[in-house]
Give the backbone structure.
Amino acid sequence: MKKAVLLIGSPRDGATTSGALGEHLMSLLAAKGIETRSHIISRSLIAKASYDEMLNDVSSSDIVVLSYPVYIDSPPSNVIRWMEMVRDDGLAELEGKTFLAIGNCEDPDPRKLDVSIMIMRNFSDGNRMRWAGGLRMPMSCAIDGASLSSAGGRGRWAAMALDIVAAALADGQTIPEEADALMSRLPMRDLSYVSRTNKTWKKRAKEKGTRANLMDRPFLR
């Protein structure tokens, strides 16, 4: 039986878009008879026992999926740290494994993910893995941690893309360009995106007690 492991790269607690995309793919692979496991990288790096468990699942899997967000064109620090540890300690057996990267960003332009996909490709090649491809999801706030099934129309393109991905991985194939083209489609209209993003930032500012400072422009003083 084939095995697949999902590594969730978001540093945030709770439900995340990285987790939603990755777990949806895992459920599709499980339906095709592939055994699946999942790990949140930031949690697995806390203790040696959890780190070793993650490495064991990576080493025993045929397919490795890394789902992550980007911040200013870069994967988060916990993902970079994991990649450095894998490189330096040499404990994970990666050669020959199929590697798929799923990136997401809040920007409406999927090209913001291009640099991070190149980083993932370089990581794959450097460890002699089989590069299956990279997927780019823009406007990740459209999902904001919700499962694709509950996201309604906002998750339809991602769901369609991952259906194609699951079929390709199960057959040992690389990811068709069609899958990335679907994943890269905007999940909502521009005006809805701006409105949703503004509400999100206002909510986060309120939680941090900085709601009254959102319109500050200190560098113009």
